[in-house]
Structures are given as structure tokens and as C-alpha cells.
Specification:
The protein is α/β, with parallel strands linked by helices and 286 residues long. 33% of the residues lie in helices and 22% in strands. The protein is built from 9 helices and 14 strands. Strands 5-4-3-2-1-12-13-14 form an 8-stranded mixed β-sheet. A 4-stranded antiparallel β-sheet has the order 6-9-11-10. The longest helix has 15 residues. It holds the Pfam family Hydrolase_3. One of its GO terms (molecular function) is hydrolase activity.
């Protein structure tokens, strides 16, 4: 590999995060080693910032976080940028989600994700056992954990700043019908949707994605797009992978992701693929 990046952006789910919903100690160690050699390392994830701490090893550090598919960016406790869904859009979408009985989580900034109490019965019904074969184990475990521990069940929406909506359905037909409903709503209200599996869709501010978030982070660090590489595995990574100078897909990524990148890891996310890739390309050759 001739290209030597000044910065690397890493996706989480399906990339540095394995199917046990954990980032291994080996990933932490390779990130520490790269940073010690002067290479910036960032996370670019669909997860909200408060979803990260529970899945990374103790002492895990990066130079910055691009979260919620580009809706927010952080360097330590510094807020580099934050976009927010409008209250009007939030209220409209919840009404439509209720009508369509679609599982949803609303992510306010600075507090727990919200689902309204009146929707609890059908939301819980969407994650009844057994797990559908086509639902990824990471996503299923995350939904189970959200229902049990992480969702704040509220009588009404609280707050006025929201990083994203997450929607899930146990069948592909159901989520595809919901995506169509959202596309129809886009004709009235401008917003962006993103998917990271066959069973979900997320809603963000119009024209926001991982690439726009990365651009804002690059300004903060005075870096250029042609100086960076990125590793990802799913559709919400496509804007990021198309932006960077050198794009890498995980071995476990679908073929349409692998077709647009410069390289593919030798190992999957469950085999510490990012660790082995970065070690072979940037440590052993130094």
C-alpha cells in the first residue's frame, strides 16, 4: 500500500465492533499504536455518542467522534458540531410511525433515547422471540438491550434537540413499507434517511451523512480529503467511502460495498479484521 494517510476514519458496527457488540482490546491497541506514530484515528458511526462507551474497552481513545451518521462531532468533551431534527418533524414522524406500528427510538442530545409509553406494546412486539433469520445478531441484541435498559418510556416528547430517529422492523416487507412512507414525507419536509441493515432505517437532518460529518471534522484538524482513508461495511458508510482517498471494506461487507472500494480486509469483524489490516499496512511496514 503506497498511500500513507494522515487520518483514518473507522465505522463501528460490523467494522471494529464484533457480533458480541464489543470492540476488542486488539483494536484499542492498534489505534493507540497508530496515534503514537502521528496518524489521527477517528470513529465515524451511526451510533449516538452515548451508545459508544458501553461497547469499547477501558481506556479506549480516538482523536474524535463523528456520530449519528454525521449529525454530531466531538473531540473529547468539545462539541465540534451538532445538527438537530426539528420538533415539527419529530412529532410528524412519530404519528406516522404509530399508524404504521413501526419500532422507533428517538435520540435527544444529552439524555436517554425516547419511545412514548402509548407505543410500548407494539414496539416490544417487534422484538419478540424467536429472532428472524434475516436480522443480524448485533442489531437484535441491541434492540433487546434498548427495550430492557436504555429506552426512557415517556408520556410525551421531552427536549428540543434531537440527533436522529432509529426505526426497526422484524420483517423486510414492514421496514420497506415504512421507507416508502418516509420517502413520501420527504416530498413535504426535507430530511435524510440512511440504512445500515435490511431491517432498519434512520432519519437525520437533510443533506447530512457520514461524509458531511467527516468534512466538518477535517476542518477542525486542518486535514484534507485526499489525506484520509476509511474502513466500513454497510450502506450508511457509502458516503464516507466515496469521499476518502483510500476506502476499505470489511470482508463481511456485502458485495455492492466491496465493489466501490480500493481494498478489502482479509478477516471479518469477528476475526479482528481491522486490527490485522492496520497492523499489516501501517505497523509491520514501518
Amino acid at each position: 500500500m503506497k498511500f500513507k494517510p494522515k487520518a483514518i476514519f473507522l465505522d463501528m458496527d460490523g467494522t471494529i465492533l464484533n457480533h458480541q457488540n464489543k470492540v476488542s482490546i486488539h483494536i484499542k491497541e492498534i489505534i493507540d499504536e497508530l496515534r503514537s506514530k502521528g496518524i489521527f484515528v477517528f470513529i465515524a458511526t451511526g451510533r449516538a455518542v452515548d451508545e459508544i462507551e458501553g461497547v469499547v474497552p477501558e481506556g479506549f481513545q480516538v482523536d474524535g467522534l463523528v456520530t449519528s451518521n454525521g449529525m454530531a462531532g466531538y473531540v473529547g468533551k468539545e462539541v465540534v458540531f451538532e445538527h438537530s431534527l426539528t420538533c415539527e418533524l419529530v412529532e410528524t414522524i412519530i404519528e406516522k410511525a404509530r399508524k404504521n406500528k413501526v419500532y422507533y427510538e428517538l435520540f435527544p442530545y444529552g439524555t436517554s433515547r425516547i419511545t412514548l409509553k402509548q407505543d410500548k406494546q407494539y414496539v416490544e412486539e417487534e422484538i419478540r422471540d424467536p429472532k428472524p433469520d434475516s436480522v443480524g445478531i448485533n442489531e437484535w441484541r441491541s434492540r433487546k438491550q434498548a427495550i430492557k435498559e436504555e429506552i426512557a418510556w415517556k408520556d410525551q416528547i421531552e427536549g428540543n434537540k434531537f440527533s436522529k430517529f432509529y426505526f426497526f422492523a422484524r420483517t423486510k416487507d414492514h421496514i420497506n413499507e415504512w421507507k416508502h412512507e418516509l420517502d413520501q414525507l420527504k416530498l413535504e419536509i426535507d430530511f435524510t434517511t440512511s440504512i445500515s441493515s435490511l431491517h432498519n432505517v434512520e432519519v437525520m437532518v437533510a443533506h447530512v451523512n457520514k461524509a458531511t460529518g467527516i468534512k466538518e471534522m477535517l476542518k477542525r484538524f486542518d486535514l484534507l480529503e485526499d489525506e484520509i482513508m476509511a474502513i466500513g461495511d454497510s450502506d450508511n458508510d457509502l458516503p464516507m467511502l466515496r469521499l476518502v482517498n483510500y476506502a476499505v471494506a470489511m470482508k463481511n461487507a456485502p458485495d455492492h460495498i466491496k465493489e466501490i472500494v480500493d481494498d478489502v480486509t482479509e478477516f471479518t469483524c469477528d476475526e479482528d479484521g481491522v486490527y490485522h489490516y492496520l497492523k499489516s499496512k501501517f505497523i509491520l511496514c514501518i
